[in-house]
């Protein structure tokens, strides 16, 4: 009788090998599925914090972590900046650990190596393993992730390190895409704002060309009419209702004169004399004057003016008109009261990326805001959102023209928590504008 035991043993070994291979294949498929799910999680967010939180949670699925941290490279200084630490109470000791690793050259080694590595902790006491993972793409270095674990170095397998390499590379790619998207969005917004300023300048120029020739012709008869009305009002022989009629006529003549003068300022027909001056005193005077005219409104001004600002090219009367018009609009937008935040800071003019430098005055109200569909019209003459008879629609148009005449610009945007934000940019004296 043949001995079948060797064949049975060989069959058992093959079955065991197949079972082991099947388990390995199952584990591989599980890892692939987990990676696919991780990719779906980090593809949705567009900000770096959410991407990192998804990556951190995935790392904790494979390695026991006592502390995790994210360092990103500052695009301006090219230095590593600590962005996030979990738990937050370990931030200070984590910063010391990172500083020590940078000083001894380990950060540079990790970045150049482009793969995660296990390192001895230099400041941290409890963790036995310090896992550092570079966040790099073929284009640039974004930063590095750090995880402190109580595990022994020998328990972190080669497969775990390979998996972490894949995870951090995916995370770096999505982070870079998020940054590129943010940069593109900022460029688009800047282009839209520049286009809006160009269109507004073209409107101002076209109105100026159409109307500058007739302004003086209108004002001359208006002045004559107003003067004769004043003489008639001084006649003691006149009684009511003639005096009331004359008063109405004089008021309407003055109203027409005000509209014409406002259009002259908007069109640039009246030159604005500019000289170096300090913005803050003029701004404070305009705020106090306009708020004093409407004491019944519970408006709370929150003023934050930076001292030692560079002098700007301006005209005190023109600047008071500009700032006063914006304050008036803010008060109109808050009939029930609210906060009016006003600040002044050094700034770069929007039209120039680096120069000339100047000062930005920011005014933010808590009103209902300006609908996007009419925002491009708010600097147009005679455009007003107020009820008929409550505004001529010239205050913001005049402010826009005065700011442009001084070499600056004015922008409008939504506030972070609602309301409207006006920014007036004025060039510094001697900036070449």
What would you say about this model in short?
This protein has helices at residues 5-43, 48-62, 91-103, 106-113, 158-233, 242-267, 279-293, 316-333, 395-405, and strands spanning 67-73, 80-86, 117-119, 129-136, 141-149, 275-277, 299-305, 312-314, 338-348, 357-364, 409-414, 420-427. The protein is of the alpha+beta class and 433 residues long.
Can you characterise this structure?
The strands form 3 sheets. Strands 2-1-5-4-3 form a 5-stranded antiparallel sheet, sandwiched between helices. Strands 7-9-10-12-11 form a 5-stranded mixed sheet, with helices on one face. Strands 6-8 form a two-stranded antiparallel sheet. The model has no long low-confidence stretch (mean pLDDT 77). The protein is built from 9 helices and 12 strands. Helix 1 (5-43) runs parallel beside helix 5 (158-233), helix 5 packs across helix 6 and helix 8 runs antiparallel to helix 9. It has helices at 5-43, 48-62, 91-103, 106-113, 158-233, 242-267, 279-293, 316-333, 395-405, and strands at residues 67-73, 80-86, 117-119, 129-136, 141-149, 275-277, 299-305, 312-314, 338-348, 357-364, 409-414, 420-427. With 433 residues, it is an alpha+beta fold. It is elongated and about 145 Å long. It has 2 domains: 17-182, GAF domain (Beta-Lactamase, 2-Layer Sandwich), CATH 3.30.450.40; 274-433, Heat Shock Protein 90 (2-Layer Sandwich), CATH 3.30.565. The N and C termini lie far apart (109 Å).
């Amino acid at each position: 009788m043949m001995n079948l035991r060797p064949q049975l043993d060989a069959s058992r070994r093959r079955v065991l090998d197949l079972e082991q291979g099947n388990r390995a294949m199952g584990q591989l498929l599980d890892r692939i599925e987990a990676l696919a799910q991780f990719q779906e999680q980090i593809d949705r967010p567009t900000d770096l914090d959410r991407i990192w939180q998804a990556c951190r949670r995935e790392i904790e699925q494979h390695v026991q972590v006592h502390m995790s941290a994210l360092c990103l490279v500052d695009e301006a200084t090219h230095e590593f900046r600590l962005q996030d630490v979990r738990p937050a109470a370990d931030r200070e000791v984590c910063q010391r650990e990172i500083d020590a690793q940078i000083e001894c050259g380990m950060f540079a080694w990790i970045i150049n190596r482009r793969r995660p590595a296990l390192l001895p902790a230099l400041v941290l006491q409890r963790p036995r393993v310090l896992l550092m993972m570079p966040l790099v793409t073929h284009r640039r270095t974004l930063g590095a992730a750090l995880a402190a674990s109580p595990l022994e170095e020998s328990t972190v397998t080669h497969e775990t390190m390979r998996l972490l390499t894949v995870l951090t590379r995916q995370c770096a790619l999505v982070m870079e895409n998020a940054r590129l998207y943010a940069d593109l969005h900022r460029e688009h917004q800047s282009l839209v704002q520049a286009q809006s300023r160009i269109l507004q300048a073209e409107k101002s120029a076209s109105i100026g060309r159409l109307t500058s020739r007739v302004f003086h012709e209108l004002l001359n008869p208006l002045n004559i009419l107003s003067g004769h009305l004043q003489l008639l009002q001084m006649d003691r022989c006149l009684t009511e209702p003639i005096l009331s009629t004359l008063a109405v006529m004089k008021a309407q003549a003055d109203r027409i004169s005000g509209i014409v003068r406002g259009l002259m300022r908007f069109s640039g027909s009246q030159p604005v004399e500019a000289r170096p001056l300090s913005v803050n005193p003029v701004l404070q005077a305009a705020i106090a004057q306009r708020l004093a005219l409407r004491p019944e409104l519970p408006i709370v001004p929150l003023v934050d003016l930076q001292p030692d600002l560079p002098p700007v090219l301006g005209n005190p009367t023109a600047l008071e008109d500009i700032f006063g018009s914006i304050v008036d609009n803010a008060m109109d937008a808050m009939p029930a009261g609210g906060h009016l935040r006003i600040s002044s800071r050094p700034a770069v003019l929007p039209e120039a990326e680096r120069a000339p430098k100047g000062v930005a005055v920011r005014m933010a109200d808590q009103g209902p805001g300006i609908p996007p569909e009419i925002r491009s019209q708010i600097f147009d003459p005679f455009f007003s959102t107020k009820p008929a008879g409550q505004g001529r629609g010239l205050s913001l148009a005049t402010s826009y023209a005065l700011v442009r005449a001084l070499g600056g610009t004015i922008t409008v945007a939504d506030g972070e928590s609602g309301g409207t934000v006006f920014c007036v940019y004025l060039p510094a004296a001697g900036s070449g504008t």
